[in-house]
């Protein structure tokens, strides 16, 4: 195997195994920053060793064992847990002498618990949302600092400092490496799900830059969401979020035209929607709703948004969409997650279910919301409703306002094209 092929294989392996390695080492050291450094040391050791010796029979086990040895050395240097480290070292040495299969069994013990601790640590509310996203992609996604920086269109140095500050904040706040207590779970889980969905949304509709979408971020968010669902199978909102992302991701191929230009929902070729992802999403939604029924709980925001997405997924054509049900679901969403953005989305659904005039009155009622003063989607929605009402000059002006506010160049170009099409 060539060095290039080996590096490519190691890169793919690291994306899969890095979270497990960091989680297990963090469990030993009780320090996420140290754990990541040790995990990176194990990766460098593989890059130095494998080209000469070849790929081990179990590369993941090799990385884990190497990282654990280095963690033991770190503990010795810190002179921590002096009474236990001899036993820990002897256990590992004995397992190594006995052969790799036993080491694998020892390594895999409670790995799910360690991963869950890592998830809640990386997404801790003491960090800013931007820091949580960066740290989660770094620790749980195995992405390099450069990859994360490019995905979010920030300088690599800025992103690196963000990660360094996040680790320092966790240390200074003495955030324990543990899953939250039962009375803290709801708040902390909300933070985890928010981070995963922020990552997905940045991939699904890029905030800025030249690309309409960044599918790699969607895929990473899906991987993280599925992992959390495996770790917390009894939490309905986790499955609700997975359902929402699966169904939205099913449209990725249909959301751009041949030149990369945006294609909006009502104009998409639905034969290009990924039916496997839709089936997976509907299955996850059914699981969430089943858990809600058993636990006698009301729908949370992710399950409700997934139910809205399911209405679109089930419609073979735009005209077959059950817009009245979507309006009702948005009514429920406003109850559990009151927000001007949700109200704007509801107005769009009202425009389809009851006509543009009623929807326009709702949109105009939202125009003074401070959050919408620099938000391009409000004038964009307003322009669409005005155009449907035949008020073309007003629609053109609204599209141009939206284009001026848009930060994504593809979206700006689409809005200017729509403005140009609004001739009286």
UniProtKB/TrEMBL annotation:
Keyword Manganese listed: no
Domain DUF6596 intervals: 188-288
Cross-referenced SUPFAM superfamilies: Sigma2 domain of RNA polymerase sigma factors (SSF88946), Sigma3 and sigma4 domains of RNA polymerase sigma factors (SSF88659)
Keywords: Plasmid
Keyword Cytoplasm belongs to the record: no
UniProt GO MF annotations: DNA binding; sigma factor activity
Boundaries of every RNA polymerase sigma-70 region domain copy: 20-79
InterPro entries, per database record: DUF6596 (IPR046531), RNA_pol_sigma-70_dom (IPR014284), RNA_pol_sigma70_r2 (IPR007627), RNA_pol_sigma70_r4_t2 (IPR013249), RNA_pol_sigma_r2 (IPR013325), RNA_pol_sigma_r3/r4-like (IPR013324), WH-like_DNA-bd_sf (IPR036388)
Domain annotation RNA polymerase sigma factor 70 region 4 type: ranges: 120-170
Top-level lineage group: Bacteria
GO biological process: DNA-templated transcription initiation
Protein's name in the database: RNA polymerase subunit sigma-24
Organism in which the protein naturally occurs: Pseudomonas sp. (strain WBC-3)
Lineage: Bacteria, Pseudomonadati, Pseudomonadota, Gammaproteobacteria, Pseudomonadales
């Amino acid at each position: 195997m060539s060095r290039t092929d080996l590096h490519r294989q190691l890169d793919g392996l690291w994306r899969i195994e890095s979270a497990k390695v960091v989680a297990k080492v963090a469990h030993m050291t009780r320090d996420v920053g140290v754990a990541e450094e040790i995990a990176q040391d194990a990766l460098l050791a593989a890059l130095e060793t494998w080209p000469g010796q070849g790929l081990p029979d179990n590369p993941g086990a090799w990385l884990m064992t190497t990282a654990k040895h280095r963690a033991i050395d770190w503990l010795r240097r810190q002179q921590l847990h002096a009474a236990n480290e001899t036993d820990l070292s002897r256990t590992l040495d004995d397992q190594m002498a006995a052969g790799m299969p036993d080491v694998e069994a020892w390594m895999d013990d409670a790995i799910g618990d360690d991963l869950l601790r890592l998830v809640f640590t990386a997404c801790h509310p003491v960090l800013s949302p931007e820091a949580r996203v960066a740290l989660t992609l770094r620790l749980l996604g195995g992405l390099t600092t450069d990859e994360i920086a490019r995905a979010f269109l920030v300088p690599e140095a800025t992103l690196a400092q963000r990660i360094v500050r996040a680790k320092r904040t966790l240390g200074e706040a003495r955030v324990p490496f543990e899953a939250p207590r039962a009375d803290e779970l709801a708040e902390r889980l909300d933070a985890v799900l928010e981070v995963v969905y922020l990552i997905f949304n940045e991939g699904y509709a890029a905030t800025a830059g030249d690309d309409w979408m960044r599918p790699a971020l969607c895929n990473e968010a899906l991987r993280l969401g599925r992992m959390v669902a495996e770790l917390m199978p009894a939490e309905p909102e986790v499955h609700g979020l997975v359902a929402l992302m699966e169904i939205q991701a099913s449209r990725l191929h249909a959301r751009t035209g041949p030149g990369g230009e945006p294609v909006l929902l009502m104009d998409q070729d639905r034969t290009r929607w990924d039916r496997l992802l839709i089936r997976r999403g509907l299955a996850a939604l059914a699981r969430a709703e089943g858990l809600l029924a058993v636990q006698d709980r009301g729908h949370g925001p992710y399950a409700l948004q997934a139910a809205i997405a399911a209405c679109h997924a089930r419609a073979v054509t735009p005209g077959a969409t059950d817009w009245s049900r979507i309006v009702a679901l948005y009514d429920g969403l406003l109850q559990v997650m009151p927000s001007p953005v949700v109200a704007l989305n509801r107005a769009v659904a009202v425009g389809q279910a009851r006509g543009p005039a009623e929807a326009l009155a709702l949109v105009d009622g939202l125009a003074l919301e401070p959050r919408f003063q620099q938000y391009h989607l409000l004038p964009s929605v307003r322009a669409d409703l005005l155009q449907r009402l035949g008020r073309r000059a007003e629609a053109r002006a609204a599209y141009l306002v939206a284009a001026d506010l848009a930060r994504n160049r593809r979206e700006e170009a689409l809005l200017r094209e729509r403005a140009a099409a609004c001739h009286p």
